[in-house]
Amino acid sequence: MRADNGALQQSDAVPTILSQKACLQYKASFDKKFPRYQLLDRELAEQTKLFEHLEAEYHAALQPGERAALARRITLAFEEKQDDMRRKTEEYRALHLELKRLKQAVSQYVERDHASYET
Fold this sequence. Notes:
This protein has one domain (27-111). By secondary structure, the protein is mainly α. The protein has helices spanning 20-60, 64-118.
């Protein structure tokens, strides 16, 4: 489904691009959104790395008191970051789907455009 202004809606399947102008608009939309997607990917990877490091420290701890302190540290870090991570994960997933549709639409247009020259 498209809004009145022709913008891609989140619920759309792969849209059909019918003109070079529309293709350029879809490419521009992709180019505008892709840096945010990359940033979210890096931030989520950093969070994953942090918790993997904390988990490794926990498993390496030999003393019960050390493990208990690390368990508290992990729990506090998780509680502190949980809402932000959830929000970023949801945004990341939505962008992933949107960028995938934009890329597919442009690719299909380019393939159709080149196929029309070959026939």
